[in-house]
Write a structure and sequence with these properties.
By secondary structure, this protein is mostly helical. It contains 21 helices and no strands. 71% of the residues lie in helices and 0% in strands. The two termini are 29 Å apart.
Length: 421
Amino acid sequence: MENRKSSFVTGRGGKQRWGHVFATRVLVIALLILLGVLVATPTRTLAAEAIIGPAVGKVVSEAQGLAKAVNFSAARKKIDEARRIPDKSAYEIFVIEDYETYLNVKLKDYPAAARSAEAALATGMVPRSDRPERLKTLAKLNFSIRNYIKTIAFTQKYASEAGADDEVRRLEIQAYYLQKDYAAAQKVARATAIGAKQDHSKPDEAVLQIWNSAAYHEKDRKGQHDALTALVNAYPKPAYLKDLVRLVADDLGRSDRMSFEIFRVRLAAGLLETAVDYVEMAQLAIQLGLPGEALEVMIKGRAAGVLGGANKSRELRLQTVAGEQARRDEALLESQGENAAANATLGEAYASYGKREEAIALYKAALATSFSEADLTRLHLGQVYFSRGDSARANVAFSSIKTAKLVWLAQLWMLLVRGTR
């Protein structure tokens, strides 16, 4: 099985798919609508201080007239005149900066809009109830101009004043990621996903994708595993499951047994896609003394229309060998092994011929005593329960596994159990 990077980390040609996450044009429209509401209508401020002197009022009024005539550049120059008037009150400064924010957005001068919006907020004239929306706007503005440090600052300020907000938290995570602070991006994304789970809500798919990609950049295999598991649970797409299976396969190593167990997961999940996959799985089954399973794999590959192509004759020879060995092997199966390990091996053989009840009895007999391969036997017991549609017992068997590498496999099977409910 080849070692490939997660398809949610890199795209064709190795280019990162996680670029500037919000389309700028969509963001600009949203900002314009929001800022239009904030500055084109009378703004609620501290009533006792909401007084504009005649000098400032005259210039601002002239700027509004120019803006009404769609001459935004001239309106902004007029507002600059108001800025130069001495001895202004905090409210007058607020009105000037607030209106200039509106003009800057109209002129698509977003760096200037971010500066003037921040200056307006700094006057202290925005009522507490309006501050969260202002902070969110500032986060969006700074994100649109790639000022990720300020984006993060405003998202955190928003959280401290208004609490959690999915959109604001997503901006924070994206800002960390895009400035390549992958550790922080992963930390916040993980916390966000955990929070969603605790609230019994569905985590944002983009947040989980960034978590996965950030973990990849950090070379954090557990982080990738957790992120991909969360993606499969919340958004059960084949691509996510394929990435997770590939990750687990890489971590399990290349032994025949572990490779075969991964093939079993892939077959159950519908992820065997090529003739090479089916042939390799069948060959491994024969090597492991499971010709019955090898024959079943070849039959399934032919039924799926994957086998029977350019290597048809070779595939048929393999199927014939598997069939002959299976007939001899099945006829020699005993009803009981000499010890726990023998019962476990015999149980797997019965399971490979579809004799589930015999397999279950032998697995249980093996697990009645302690032996080195007990967790592998629990994995196989869970697989038999899964194959007969007994989800509850399958999960009990899988969840009882303690050996680290086999836990990864068990978790994959539990995801498949969840998907069949």
